[in-house]
Write a structure and sequence with these properties.
BirA Bifunctional Protein, domain 2; globular; seven-stranded mixed beta sheet; alpha+beta
């Protein structure tokens, strides 16, 4: 495959030309490493889609911006699906080569049915892409971590009363399947150079009953910003920009005060769910608002434990539920659908 870079957006003309160019490049991809280069070219920070997004400044009316944003979201989804299909085809070809060497004659079907990318995976890819374009880097958490990283280093020492509010699993070695992606905060503070702009998408675990809005296993997106002169309004502007990009439109966001030991001041972000079904009313407890994430200014104790001087640096952090974002965006009325393996549900994505 040629290593030639893709052309600048102004020479492509628009979404149709970008898709045509992607299909052309995918047709010559032979290995997963070549595919990764194509993925970076079309979905990375210097991609033609990002260049095209800058044209939103040409539109003055809110309706025009909304239509443009929806078109860009459709383009990104098409590009993501084409790349995912190519990745599957490459793996299927590898599987075919293995079948030539050895065949299980007792197998009912020698080739697997084609599936689709799971909606949570697609959402994580999209969320990562948005934050990369906003200048953030990506870190992945440890799914099993120490009590210190889960609790102590985010300002919940052993005697802290808030510690008993977490429904926590423990291993025989008394480690913790992480209860939140905040378990990565101390590592981030100690390993990254300042300033820090990082997001952490990952799987979390809590020993609690499930219902239409709660699961014992779920995904979060953590955000950590530490720099000089960071304020609460910087956090709200960042989150509002993310929500507008993810949902492809301006959404109503509500901040209510809340207490989290690792931030001060802290709050809860809720997003207005426009649906009017009875299921949605039950999930939102009749309010029309669904809680998405806790957030706030990073507590000075947390910065100090991470080796950062709170007299010089400030920052904000948030931790939000990825399934809940998908529920609002796609009208999913029961969070348990993501984990039950139902093909009728999954094929809709």
């Amino acid at each position: 495959m040629s290593d030639k870079k893709i052309l600048p957006t102004q020479n492509l003309g628009g979404p149709e030309q970008i898709i045509d160019l992607l299909k052309s490049q995918l047709s010559s991809v032979k290995t997963t490493s070549e595919l990764e280069n194509v993925k970076t070219s079309f979905l990375g920070r210097k991609s033609p889609i990002n260049d095209l997004m800058k044209e939103i400044v040409k539109y003055k009316e809110a309706s025009e911006k909304k239509a443009f944003g929806e078109k860009m979201n459709e383009l990104k989804e098409t590009v993501t699906n084409l790349i995912a299909k190519k990745e599957y085809d490459l793996k299927e070809e590898e599987y075919g080569v293995e079948l030539e060497k050895w065949t299980d004659v007792t197998a009912f079907n020698s080739k697997p049915n084609k599936g689709t990318v799971h909606p949570i995976t697609k959402a994580i890819w999209e969320i990562e892409d948005i934050f990369k374009r906003m200048g953030f880097d990506i870190e992945l958490p440890y799914e099993i971590d120490s009590e210190d990283n889960n609790f102590t280093f985010v300002n919940l020492p052993p005697t802290h009363p808030a510690r008993s509010s977490w429904d926590t699993f423990y291993t025989d070695d008394h480690d913790v399947p992480i209860v939140h992606t905040s378990s990565m905060q101390n590592r981030i503070y100690r390993t990254k150079k300042l300033p820090i702009y990082t997001v952490v998408p990952g799987k979390c675990f809590r020993n609690e009953s499930t219902d239409a809005r709660h699961e014992h296993t779920f995904f979060q997106i953590e955000g950590v910003v530490v720099d000089k002169g960071i304020t609460f309004t910087d956090m709200m502007g960042t989150l509002q920009a993310f929500f507008s990009e993810y949902f492809g439109k301006e959404v109503q966001v509500m901040l209510t005060p809340d207490m989290f030991p690792f931030v001060e001041p802290g709050g809860m972000i809720s997003v207005k769910w426009e649906g009017q079904s009875e299921a949605i009313k039950r999930i939102t407890k009749g309010t029309g608002w669904l809680e998405i994430m806790g957030c706030g200014m990073i507590h000075p104790n947390v910065l100090t434990m991470g080796g950062i001087d709170p007299e010089v640096y400030s920052g904000f952090a948030w931790g939000g539920g990825i399934e809940r974002l998908i529920m609002i965006k796609h009208g999913v009325e029961d969070v348990r659908l993501f984990k039950n393996g139902g093909l009728k549900f999954l094929r809709q994505f």
